[in-house]
Amino acid sequence: MSDIVNQGIVYEDTAKIWSSGGLMLVWAVLAIIGAIISSLFSSRIGTAIARDMRNELYAKIMTFSVSEIDKYSTASLITRTTNDVIQVQQTMVMALSMLLRAPMMAITAIFQAIATAPNMTWIIGLAVIVVLALVILILAIVMPKFKIFQQLLDRITLLTRENLTGLRVIRAFNNESHEKRKFEVANREITGVYLFINKVMALTSPLIMLVFNGTTLLCIWIGITLMQENFSYLGNMMAFMQYAIQVVMSFLFLTILLVILPRANVSAGRINAILRTHPKVSWHKKTEGSPASSPSVEFKNVSFTYEGAEANVLNNISLKAKAGETLAFIGSTGSGKSTLINLIPRLYDSTSGEVLVNGVNVKDYAEDDLMKRIGYIPQRAVLFSGNIKSNITFGNIVADKVQIEKAARVSQAKEFIEKLEDEYNSHIAQGGTNVSGGQKQRLSIARAIAKNPEIYIFDDAFSALDLKTDAKLRQELKKVTENAVVLIVAQRVSTIKDANEIVVLDNGKIAGKGKHYELLNTCKVYQEIVKSQFSDQEYAAELSLAKKGAHA
Q1: What letters, b where the CB count within 10 A reaches 16 and e where it falls short, cover 260-274?
Q2: How remote is the C-alpha of 181 from its chain's centroid?
Q3: Domain count, the chain
Q4: How confident is the model at residue 30, as a pLDDT?
Q5: Angle at Cα 116 formed by Cα 114 and Cα 118, nearest 5°?
């Protein structure tokens, strides 16, 4: 530009104008190509980083015990895996395209400006100081708000997930308006914070443009003053203006980056919090010790306390079940039944005492080695999107048709499966929303049977079944669990009446153990449970049988 003005225009040298102008066009084309290549690679790298980050987060979350899931909440983990990763990705793309380019452009322009018009370089210094002061002020205002925004986003995710999963209950109690108000309050909060952030950010552009235009005006003013002494300074002034604009533009690019950096910094911190969390349940790479060939489960003086709780949920529990035996647990709500059996697959770890599987402490097992021995049917039946076959073979993907049909027959699921048009290929929606509660439970039981484990854990897994189906299922189950340990948590006495041993839990302690009729004679808590579920005549008949058995 300086050559075009000083040598081309002043001396009317058309050839110089064309040659310098042509060179400018060549550099402009090269700059465009460079920008395209930069954008392409920065986008690919940013996307790849986000992909790896999501994989690492997912893998880490899969190692969490129930304690860590409860600590962060499902909604927050979803937000961190989605929204927070996207924030980091977008910032990474911007950083890769600007973080090197802007400083290099600024440094080069400053040196060139000094060489072109050294007595005007103070203008650039003044512009840079003003820009940095504005950026620091804006960041100081919005940084705390970004943290609040991410927390409110977790809240929105939580309410959305909670309301969608509990939609039937909300409608059944005609409580839509109440839930809507809760969501509107959270939505207003996040909207208010986001509007505040955007208002502050909106000031960035006009303020930078003010600096930009002020710099240009100052360059012209000082340049014209100097031109009075030497007219040839016109070209230098125009060149200096271009360099000054490049420096300010470079800092403008960096400002844009610094504007999005705080939110990405908050998101990165939330992601790192997950990645740096050490799960309370840690696994050995290889099982230490030699598990016995005959299945068994033993609790040795086991106590357990939930994090933050003052009292123990379980107190000094000692029990043992061997192959071919059925050990049942019954008790009032909150007595510790589910907590106790959840210690076997290490959903939690005992606070004190030992849980032994085949004679080896569960804490000494490799994860795969322990889990392959256990067939777990949770209290709340969980199905995955796919079809009936994929859900039954979830724990044993190599199960053949015979094994699948056997599992379905034993679990009493075969009857309703064969009535479906596609039978075992029938679609299962996410969460099993297109099948009934009883059907979900039977498919969950079939999934455990198809795995053919050494230990079956039924955590109140018969609650949605009618008495007739319950009885048939338990009868068929005996045939496939002859050499396995069966642990049953139940609320119905009829479900566990024939167990080899029934353990009655009360406030985390063993109130009694023995067979059904033994407990009717010896355990007051068990008597109360039976009495609450049987009619007076049935209860009197049961007591009579118990007394005869004791007398015999």
Answers
A1: bbbbbbbbbebbeeb
A2: 27
A3: 1
A4: 92
A5: 40
pLDDT in tens, 284-340: 888 888 888 888 888 998 888 887 777 788 888 888 888 888 888 888 877 888 888
Mean pLDDT of 453-467: 81
pLDDT digits (tens, 9 = 90+) for 5-38: 666 666 677 887 888 888 889 988 998 898 888 8
**Residue span of the structural domain in which 146 resides:** 2-275
Question: Which DSSP category does 320 fall into?
Answer: E
Within a domain: residue 479? no
Q: What is the pLDDT of residue 335?
A: 81
Q: In CATH, what number is assigned to the domain containing residue 39?
A: 1.20.1560.10
Quick check: is 371 in a domain?
no
Ordered strands of the 509-514 beta sheet: 374-377, 455-459, 485-489, 326-331, 501-506, 509-514
How many Å apart are CA 281 and CA 138, to the nearest integer? 43
Bridge-partner residues for 96, per DSSP?
none
For residue 408, is it within any domain? no
d(CA 394, CA 282): 24
CA 46 remoteness from chain centre = 21
Beta pairing partners, 459: 489
Helix axes 14-62, 85-98, angle to 10 degrees: 150
Q: How far apart are CA 414 and CA 410, in angstroms?
A: 8
Q: Is 539 exposed, middle or buried (0-12, 13-18, 19+ CB in 10 A)?
A: middle
Token pair for 464: 């949605």
420 neighbors 426 (Cβ within 8 angstroms):
yes
